[in-house]
Automatic annotation (TrEMBL), chain A:
The lineage of its organism: Eukaryota, Viridiplantae, Streptophyta, Embryophyta, Tracheophyta. GO terms for biological process: cell division; regulation of transcription by RNA polymerase II; transcription initiation at RNA polymerase II promoter. Belongs to the cyclin family. It comes from Zea mays. GO terms for molecular function: cyclin-dependent protein serine/threonine kinase regulator activity. This is Cyclin-H1-1. The gene is LOC100283483.
TrEMBL record, chain B:
Residues 304-343, 356-428 are annotated as: Disordered. GO terms for molecular function: ATP binding; cyclin-dependent protein serine/threonine kinase activity; RNA polymerase II CTD heptapeptide repeat kinase activity. The keyword DNA-binding does not apply. InterPro entries: CDK (IPR050108), CDK7 (IPR037770), Kinase-like_dom_sf (IPR011009), Prot_kinase_dom (IPR000719), Protein_kinase_ATP_BS (IPR017441), Ser/Thr_kinase_AS (IPR008271). One of its GO terms (biological process) is regulation of cell cycle. This is Cyclin-dependent kinase D-1. The lineage of its organism: Eukaryota, Viridiplantae, Streptophyta, Embryophyta, Tracheophyta. It catalyses: L-threonyl-[protein] + ATP = O-phospho-L-threonyl-[protein] + ADP + H(+); L-seryl-[protein] + ATP = O-phospho-L-seryl-[protein] + ADP + H(+); [DNA-directed RNA polymerase] + ATP = phospho-[DNA-directed RNA polymerase] + ADP + H(+). The active site is at 146 (proton acceptor). One of its GO terms (cellular component) is nucleus. Belongs to the protein kinase superfamily. CMGC Ser/Thr protein kinase family. CDC2/CDKX subfamily. Keywords: ATP-binding, Kinase, Nucleotide-binding, Phosphoprotein, Serine/threonine-protein kinase, Transferase. It is an enzyme of class 2 (transferase).
């Protein structure tokens, strides 16, 4: 569906930075309050209609007395990036097209704009996002098949489908920069034929830009900018490295053709902002996530906190067991 | 729409049995394989809506219904006066609910309603709205893939809108294959019947051409009973395609050679249609999909700019409510209608049983070639038939036709005559 201009994405899912921060902070605070009040953050979800209810108070919980700490705002951010990268790995393993990968990541980002990772397990939501993306992009993979491929019960995938769709407000069509890159590369071929640069190296440029977009998808940029802006930012960055064309001259030509309301200086600033976000991207490793993941488990099941403390006091023979558990990430 | 961020779950029935705290349920409008469609009042806007309810079973292996998801995703992005509006979408209890604007009837009901006379301007108006809806879809790279009269809904304001996007999909990505098992058979394009899996917007145009033909004749155009029979009927009506007309046809997966039959003139199939109408129709029913007219080009065809101008939607004839259509199927009413409406003055004679039988026979013949123009020609003589209707009633023991029918027909004719004047032209 090649009309981003009239899309729900443009109308409803492109934000200002402060809006994003407000939403993330609100979700984080709500989860922290839930933890203080009920002793756990994990919400109960009705599988059929995706409605949510507060958890039962833990049996031994006294309000306000919890020794379990909620994740911080920054820890949540790290968790989201970690699982978005996992989506890329899962999609690569299944050899799904970039469109499905991008759609799944966007669904994940939109979901956790409204919920905290403490409220719904990101590992499960991630899988449901991939499943829903395959369905919507008409590259259907059964939940069973998907589940087998990643050694997970397929029911986990289906359990969250309705709450995901509801949270997305059923806005299912997503535009990603990959298609925009193809369009700009075609355009650059004409630009090159007009004597502005070597035609043959555009393939290198295209591949480099696609790799750059893969990183870009893990930043907040897809929630802040349009696919066309993201694509041009990726091409600009890749061209800086490869020196294939005179990109400034190309931008001037685009703008003279478009009679754009937006001055080129403002557009270049957006491109720079996007690439700054990519430069600042910190993809956590499994090791980085160990501490955060442990906190997350305690938020969902505080009794595991006591278990953990007991284990600490025991002899080193139990270390291998803990390592094995962590490796399941 | 229930707030997605709402982490509490209130009792949805608390507000006096409103569905999801918003919709006041009404009568059932229809049922299908998907579930039930019922009427409702949107208490937020006061508008009447139609709610499609789709079961979500937790036993199912694949979660939310794929067809429903497809309809939702596309209608969420398609906003046009000639495409049905999806107002809301929400799960409730064990069902997914899709809320649509309410539409009074559909084109199939209109075509079959013998009490409705369609003028050439009326037909032109419906075809124009159908093509506007299609042009919008195709501009957004969406194929409808189920164009047929009962998927073309008509609102209280006379606007025709494309509905049922359960078979629709995005096209335009190179290399993607689609199923060829789309469209109801009578509306299926020849390239689909030959098994093509790589096709484009031409398949919707072919179906729209069949609907255009159906509006002209008031009966379905090519009524095949199998794919082979469908192709046979297409070729009998439009001539067997030659390689020069459609070079690629021999490469289609299920291509079969048919005995050559030359194309009869389209005029013989649609004797009352104007030259412009026939020209547009022939371009919509062109065999080679690459040569077939597009929706946008069709809208620019001189058919729509020549007289008579298309009837303004608000002035189009009003069919009876869908729920009342059943009344038209009572045989004795049809018996009464036939001779009354169709006997020309020169055959005016005292009614006998034999005359009655002739009337029935004439009804059958008219079914084969009715057109708005022909009905219009018959109109002036209609009022002189009132005594006949009394006699018919007396002889066959049926009620005479009520006067309001004649009066409303006269009013309708007068309105349409006014609409045909250039001054009252309906600007596109």
């Amino acid at each position: 569906m090649a009309d981003f201009r009239t899309s729900t994405q443009r109308e409803r899912w492109i934000f200002q930075s402060h809006d994003l921060m407000e939403r993330w902070a609100a979700a984080n605070q709500r989860a922290a309050q839930t933890l203080a009040q009920y002793g756990t953050t994990r919400l109960n979800v009705d599988l059929l209609d995706g409605s949510v209810s507060y958890p039962e108070s833990m049996p031994d919980h006294v309000e306000g007395s919890s020794v379990v700490k909620p994740l911080s705002y920054e820890e949540e951010q790290l968790t989201r990036v970690f699982y978005e990268q996992k989506i890329q790995e899962v999609c690569a393993a299944f050899k799904f097209p970039h469109k499905i990968q991008a759609t799944a990541i966007i669904y994940f980002k939109r979901f956790y704009l409204q919920w905290s990772v403490m409220e719904h397990q990101p590992k499960h939501i991630m899988l449901t996002c991939v499943y829903a993306s395959c369905k919507v992009e008409e590259n259907h993979v059964s939940a069973e098949e998907l589940g087998k491929g990643i050694q997970q019960d397929h029911q986990i995938i289906l359990n969250n489908e309705m709450i995901l769709l509801k949270t997305l407000d059923f806005d299912l069509i997503v535009y990603a920069p990959y298609r925009s890159i193809e369009g700009f590369i075609d355009d650059l071929e004409d630009f090159c034929r007009a004597g502005n640069g070597p035609f043959q190296r555009l393939k290198e440029l295209r591949q480099a830009a696609i790799s750059h977009v893969d990183k870009m998808m893990l930043t907040d940029a897809p929630l802040l900018y349009t696919p066309g802006q993201l694509a041009l930012a990726a091409l600009h960055k890749s061209n800086d490295l490869l020196r294939v064309v005179d990109f400034e001259r190309y931008l001037e030509i685009i703008f003279s053709r478009q009679h754009s309301d937006c001055p080129i200086e403002q557009f270049v600033q957006s491109i720079n902002e996007i690439n700054y976000l990519v430069d600042q991207l910190n993809i956590p490793t499994v090791k980085d996530m160990r501490h955060v993941d442990r906190k997350l488990k305690h938020c969902w099941d505080p009794s595991s906190h006591d278990e953990h403390n007991k284990k600490k006091e025991k002899k080193s023979k139990h270390k291998s067991k803990r390592t094995s558990t962590d490796a399941q990430l | 729409m229930a707030s997605a961020g709402n982490s509490g779950s209130g009792d949805d029935d608390a507000g006096g049995k409103l569905l999801a705290d918003r919709y006041q349920k009404g009568e059932v409008l229809g049922e299908g394989t998907y579930g039930v469609v019922f009427k409702a009042i949107d208490t937020k806007t006061g508008n009447t809506v139609a709610v499609k309810r789709i079961r979500i079973g937790k036993d199912k292996k694949e979660g939310v219904n794929f067809t429903a998801l497809r309809e939702i995703k596309l209608l969420k992005e398609l906003k046009d006066p000639n495409i049905i509006e999806l107002i809301d979408c929400f799960p409730y209890k064990e069902n997914l609910h899709l809320v649509f604007e309410f539409m009074e009837t559909d084109l199939e009901a209109l075509i079959k309603d013998k009490n409705i006379i369609l003028s050439p301007a009326d037909t032109k108006s419906y075809v124009q709205m159908m093509l506007k809806g299609l042009a919008f879809c195709h501009k957004k790279w969406v194929l409808h893939r189920d164009m047929k009269p009962n998927n073309l809904l008509i609102g209280a304001d006379g606007q025709l809108k494309l509905a049922d996007f359960g078979l629709a999909r995005v096209f335009g990505s190179p290399g993607r294959n689609f199923t060829h098992q789309v469209f109801a058979r009578w509306y299926r394009a020849p390239e689909l019947l030959f098994g093509s899996k790589q096709y484009g917007s031409g398949v919707d145009i072919w179906a729209a051409g069949c609907i255009f033909a159906e509006l002209l004749t008031r009966r379905a155009f090519l009524q095949g009973s199998s794919d082979i029979d469908q192709l046979g009927k297409i070729f009998a009506a439009l001539g067997t395609p030659k390689s020069s007309q459609w070079p690629d046809m021999v490469y289609l997966p299920d291509y079969v050679e048919y005995q050559y039959v030359a194309a009869p003139p389209l005029r013989t199939l649609f004797p009352m249609a104007s030259d412009d109408a026939l020209d547009l129709l022939s371009k919509m029913l062109t065999y080679d999909p690459k040569a077939r007219i597009s929706a946008q080009q069709a809208l620019e065809h001189r058919y729509f700019s020549s007289l008579p101008a298309p009837t303004r939607p608000s002035q189009l004839p009003r069919p009876r409510r869908k729920g009342d259509q059943g009344n038209n199927k009572i045989p004795d009413l049809n018996l009464q209608d036939g001779p009354m409406v169709l006997s020309p003055p020169r055959k005016l004679r005292r009614v006998t049983a034999h005359e009655g039988m002739e009337g029935m026979h004439r009804t059958d013949k008219v079914d084969e070639h009715p057109s708005g123009m022909r009905h219009t020609d018959d109109m002036p003589s209609q009022s002189s038939r009132i005594p006949m209707s009394v006699d018919v009633g007396a002889v066959f023991g049926t009620r005479p036709a009520p006067r309001p029918t004649l009066n409303s027909a006269d009013k309708s004719r007068l309105k349409r005559k006014l609409d045909m004047d250039p001054e009252f032209g309906y600007a596109e």
